[in-house]
Design a protein that fits this description.
The complex is a heterodimer.
Chain A: H1 2-6, H2 9-30, H3 42-67, H4 76-94, H5 107-111, H6 127-151, H7 156-175, E1 187-188, E2 192-193, E3 196-197, H8 201-227, H9 229-246, H10 251-277, E4 279-280, H11 287-300, H12 306-325, H13 330-344, H14 348-360
Antiparallel strand pairs in A: 1-4, 2-3
Chain B: E1 8-19, E2 22-33, E3 37-41, H1 48-55, E4 63-68, E5 72-73, H2 79-85, E6 87-90, H3 102-109, H4 126-138, H5 154-168, E7 172-176, H6 184-198, E8 202-206, H7 210-216, E9 219-224, E10 227-232, H8 234-239, H9 241-248
Parallel strand pairs in B: 3-8, 3-9, 6-7, 7-8
Antiparallel strand pairs in B: 1-2, 1-4, 4-5, 9-10
The structure holds adenosine-5'-triphosphate and magnesium ion.
Chain lengths: 371, 250
């Protein structure tokens, strides 16, 4: 197990870089006063935390797509649900300090003239319960969806389209005010978490570090899964699903396990994301978001794990650059990048490195085959 | 399984499969006894592969019975369940896991618990490794164990798939055109290998190569248009005027 965990040098390298950079950014922000050359501004802390959440989401997508061949174009639904679970907790913590000053009800419910808390908001005042829900709800949705879809042997483009429909339908549902999740405004105006104000630098660094730890754990879990016998079967399912059946395996259960783990990772990513950006609204479920996340993985290199992290961070660095300087052309830039990578390095950044290495040494980690 | 030598192992009766009105199998009947090796010949489109599809649960027949061992109705089971009963299959077009090593291909096929929750294991066990060594030796792939299966030649892939069948160790092996694309020497070796495997397994082998079938020296069934045209020794079958007609008529 130890060798399985550390035998992929690129994964280890990415993990070390994530750990060091995340740590350094936090220290740079807290230990050095503004004005010092070593000071890291607070917005960089939050931005980095956000990238790490995206990296965790991308890892989950790589597990199902890169290794299981399941191209989900709806992972935003799991990310968003995790985010809403955290958002509901943060809303409950506002307590009577809302604009309307109601003891229990969040502002938007008072505004809608609701008299009491809907039953599905119960329990979210507890941090532990909310975190459990941030994993359980995406996990259960993935289980139900995967159970039906895989058993009916839905795969390929059809499966991708259904996942798009799933996230789109969820977005429409969450836009409705009577769903009780704040309608199109979503949940916002958060104040504190675990007794600490969200607006302090310490809290922001804490969230950044928590996100860094989550990415490291995500890398470890995925690495163990793909290096085990389970991962070999999953890879076999990706490359020749029918053949796997004749060997006596049930591909649907392997795919289901991968999808559920992936959805739980996305849920955790969403839960860490919300306090760092300060808002969750239905636009997180927009189909385009899920497609963007798949592009991160494609750019970084699917079926490599390291590539998911690299791709998510690299593409989002570009996105931040474009959306602050040239917001109109971001989508064109993203599309162009995707086309360029597909043409020049079809296996993505990390996949390209693996291929180059493999030319020298035979026997490295298996790389992704055709879709 | 509790099947004894000489018992009926596989019983197909009146099996009919239609694709859009076209009868790929037409009231096909075939009986295989335990321990037997049977060669199935027949022109292209005779329904040989479709018959294997029915036996392995890939295709549901429109009518007819397919019984395995002591009463398992194959028409009601799916592919993994049938594989678990002890029926393994080598495909006409060799299908191996191309992005994985030769060794891992065999490892995946090794008999054992197939459930996902049992799959969180890392290093292979010593008995597993010994078995893999032995199998790779048998199929002449010992020097290729670290190579990706996708990089093997066509003939080597055929051998790897036979190795995977050995690893699976099923009671009945369905082998679809094992020597397509092999040299004469390889063909010769393959027939010896099948005879060797037949000592402890029942085999249904489909092949066009008459020299190969002759070398096996077993009972032959000739299919044509989805039903049995002739059955018996290779000399008997190849002397049958209707067999000659369907082969030469094309
Ligand atoms: N899934 C399918 N849909 C439609 N027709 C099919 C299907 N599978 C097989 N057929 C048809 O059924 C007939 C029997 O096919 P089958 O593959 O069993 O023949 P075969 O005896 O294995 O031939 P060959 O020697 O060429 O492998 C063929 O005419 C084929 O075109
Ligand atoms: Mg055939």
């Amino acid at each position: 197990m130890r060798t399985a965990l550390f035998s992929d040098r690129l994964v280890v390298a990415v993990a070390i870089i994530v750990a060091l950079v995340t740590f350094a950014i936090g220290i740079g922000n807290l230990a050095f006063p503004p004005g010092s050359v070593l000071h890291v501004p607070t917005y960089v802390v939050s931005l980095s935390g956000k990238y790490l959440c995206y990296a965790l989401l991308a890892l989950g997508i790589d597990l199902v797509w890169g290794y299981g061949g399941i191209l989900s174009l709806g992972h935003g639904v799991f990310f968003g649900l995790g985010g809403y679970a955290m958002g509901m907790h943060l809303m409950r913590l506002i307590g009577p300090r809302g604009v309307y000053g109601h003891a229990v009800l969040p502002d938007f419910m008072v505004f809608l003239n609701w008299k009491e808390l809907p039953w599905y908001w119960y329990g979210f005042d507890s941090f532990a319960f909310a975190m459990l829900m941030a994993m359980l709800v995406p996990g259960l949705l993935a289980f139900g969806f995967g159970f039906l879809a895989f058993r009916a042997r839905v795969s390929g483009v059809y499966l991708s389209i259904i996942t798009q429909a799933l996230t789109f339908a969820t977005m429409l549902a969450f836009f409705r005010n009577d769903m009780g999740f704040g309608g199109n405004n979503g949940l916002t105006d958060f104040r504190e978490l675990l007794g600490f104000s969200l607006r302090t630098d310490e809290m922001r660094v804490g969230l950044l570090w928590a996100s860094g730890v989550a990415v490291l754990l995500g890398l470890a879990v995925c690495r163990l899964m793909v290096a085990s016998r389970f991962g070999k079967v999953l890879l076999a399912v990706r490359d020749a699903e029918a053949r796997v059946r004749f060997l006596g395996y049930r591909p649907e259960s392997y795919k289901l396990v991968a999808l559920v783990v992936s959805a739980v990772m996305a849920g955790i990513a969403g839960a860490l994301y919300v306090p760092q950006v300060g808002i969750i609204n239905p636009s997180e479920f927009a189909p385009m978001n899920s497609i963007e996340a798949v592009i991160w993985v494609a750019v970084g290199g699917r079926g490599t794990l390291a590539g998911a992290v690299v791709g998510a961070v690299a593409v989002n660095l570009l996105k931040t650059f474009f959306t602050t300087r040239l917001p109109e052309i971001w989508l064109f830039a993203l599309g162009g990048l995707f086309i360029l990578v597909t043409l020049l390095i079809p296996r993505g950044i990390v996949g390209g490195i693996v291929t180059a290495e493999r030319r020298r040494a035979v026997g490295a980690a298996p790389i992704a085959g055709p879709a | 399984m509790t099947t004894q030598q000489g018992d009926t192992l596989l019983y197909l009766d009146g099996v009919t499969v239609t694709f859009d009105g076209f009868r790929a199998l037409n009231t096909l009947s075939l009986v295989l006894t335990a321990g037997e090796m049977r060669a199935v010949i027949g022109p292209n489109g005779a329904g040989k592969t479709t018959m294997m599809d029915v036996i392995t649960g890939r295709t549901r027949p429109d009518a007819g019975k397919a019984i395995f061992g002591d009463g398992h109705d194959l028409t009601r089971l799916d592919e993994p369940a049938i594989a678990a009963l002890g029926i393994g299959r080598k495909f006409q077009k060799p299908t191996v896991f191309e992005t994985q090593t030769v060794e891992d291909n065999v490892l995946l096929a090794l008999e054992g618990d197939r459930r996902a929750r049992r799959a969180f294991r890392f290093a292979s066990t010593l008995p597993e490794r010994e078995r893999i060594d032995q199998i790779l030796e048998t199929v002449h792939l010992s020097n290729h164990r670290e190579r990706l299966a996708g990089g093997l030649s066509h003939g080597q892939k055929q051998w790897l798939e036979i190795g995977m069948l050995l690893a699976q160790d099923p009671e009945l092996l369905l082998v679809d055109e094992p020597v397509a694309g092999m040299t004469d020497a390889e063909t010769e070796e393959t027939s010896q290998l099948l005879v060797e495997i037949n000592r402890s397994h029942s085999i249904l082998v489909v092949e066009h190569d008459i020299a190969f079938v002759r070398a096996l020296g077993v009972k032959v069934t000739c299919l044509h248009e989805g039903s049995v045209l002739a059955e018996g020794s290779i000399d008997h079958v190849s002397a049958n005027p209707r067999v000659i007609e369907v082969y030469l008529g094309r």
